């Protein structure tokens, strides 16, 4: 077993878990995010939007699926975030022969005490990178379900709590389908966001050739004055969401369930995730209130992977993304609502 794997139970203390600084306002948090983005973009180019979405998942104690082609920096992005935030990190390369016990851990007979001793698997880390998750069998994929939802693992009838914070950041290749096992809807619904990095533009891609091998080294130390994740979470929970915005979110979800081309629309869990994500999105923008535009920006990443097309829609070549665009266009956007420090009114 890897020597870096932590024993079961919450991780506390130590250089990687200590509070390195404190933040009290969204403006300070935004300054930290800018500093974090600059460090990441010194190694990866053109990933600022994807980075912000991954941070939304971390700030809301949720899980993120990074869905993109090979070579765009999915694994590197997750490793850099773990290092810069000072969080314990473990990586599992999913393959068809990977067993559930390879992730969760197993009980081993101690010949000295003649008792079984639990050896923790790589899932006992604060950030678990599930690399190419769709290459593992459904049985192994299911080993993540309890951990993702309940933040605990059960082995041989004994339940072990996972470290806090705990995030699953999974990657998959949407193009190469040979030898893969598509994630079931139940597991997709547990991911708050699906993120796509995309290719850098021409100028950014040329910058890749300017640096040598030294520029590709992933940092091993956290950012100075990096805040504890629980401090940031507390600030996110204080972000206000007015009634018109809440009704707008619910209207989007209900409209998706009623669309003729969708067999399965957004679930109540999707609505819950949208609310959490919108608060974090506004927080990262330096605001203490949510705008309808935040909801529109997040509609694709939060809802797109949860929608299931009807057979007829698939035959006609429709995609969940195109159907979701229709849903967003049809639902009226609230144009007037009251906030203590903000009021948006229709233009006259």
Would you tell me the overall average pLDDT? 81
Strand content: 15-25%
Strand order of the largest sheet: 2-5-8-1-9
Q: Provide the succession of SSEs.
A: HHEHEHEEEHEEEHEHHHEHHEHHEE
Q: Oligomeric form of this entry?
A: single chain
Q: Main beta sheet: strand number and arrangement?
A: 5 strands, parallel
Question: What is the CATH C-level name of the largest domain?
Answer: Alpha Beta
Helical fraction: 25-40%
Q: What's the total count of β strands?
A: 13
Count of DSSP-assigned helices: 13
Shape: globular
Number of domains: 2
SS-derived structural category: alpha/beta
Question: Rg to the nearest angstrom?
Answer: 21 Å
CATH superfamily of the largest domain: P-loop containing nucleotide triphosphate hydrolases
**Poorly predicted sequence stretches spanning 5 or more consecutive residues:** 1-23, 338-348
- Cα end-to-end separation: 67 Å
CATH architecture level-2 label of the largest domain: 3-Layer(aba) Sandwich
Here the CATH topology of the largest domain equals Rossmann fold
């Amino acid at each position: 077993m890897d020597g870096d794997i932590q024993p079961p139970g919450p991780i506390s203390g130590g250089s990687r878990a200590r509070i390195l600084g404190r933040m009290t306002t969204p403006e300070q948090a935004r300054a930290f995010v800018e500093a974090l983005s600059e460090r990441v973009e010194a190694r990866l180019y053109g990933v600022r939007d994807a980075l912000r979405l991954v941070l939304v998942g971390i700030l809301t104690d949720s899980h993120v699926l990074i869905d993109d082609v090979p070579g765009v920096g999915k694994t590197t992005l997750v490793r850099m975030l773990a290092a810069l935030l000072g969080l314990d990190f473990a990586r599992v390369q999913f393959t068809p022969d990977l067993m559930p016990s390879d992730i969760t851990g197993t009980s081993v007979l101690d010949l000295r005490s003649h008792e079984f001793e639990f050896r923790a698997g790589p899932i006992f880390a604060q950030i678990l990178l599930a690399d190419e998750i769709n290459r593992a069998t459904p049985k192994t994929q299911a080993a993540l379900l309890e951990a993702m939802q309940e933040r605990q693992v059960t082995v041989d009838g004994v339940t072990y709590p996972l470290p806090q914070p705990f995030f699953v950041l999974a990657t998959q290749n949407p193009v190469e389908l040979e030898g893969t096992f598509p994630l079931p809807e139940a597991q997709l619904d547990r991911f708050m966001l699906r993120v796509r990095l995309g290719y850098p533009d021409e100028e950014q891609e040329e910058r890749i050739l300017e640096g040598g091998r030294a520029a590709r080294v992933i940092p091993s130390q956290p950012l100075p004055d990096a805040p504890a994740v629980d401090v940031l979470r507390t600030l996110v929970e204080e972000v206000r969401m007015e009634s018109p915005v809440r009704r707008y979110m619910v209207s989007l979800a209900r409209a998706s369930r009623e669309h003729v081309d969708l067999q399965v629309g957004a679930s109540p869990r999707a609505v819950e995730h949208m609310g959490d994500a919108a608060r974090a999105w506004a927080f990262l923008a330096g605001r203490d209130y949510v705008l309808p535009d935040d909801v529109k920006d997040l509609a694709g990443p939060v809802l797109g992977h949860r929608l299931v097309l009807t057979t007829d829609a698939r035959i006609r070549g429709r995609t969940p993304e195109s159907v979701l665009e229709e849903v967003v266009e049809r639902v009226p956007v609230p144009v007037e609502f009251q906030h203590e420090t903000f009021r948006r009114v229709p233009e006259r």
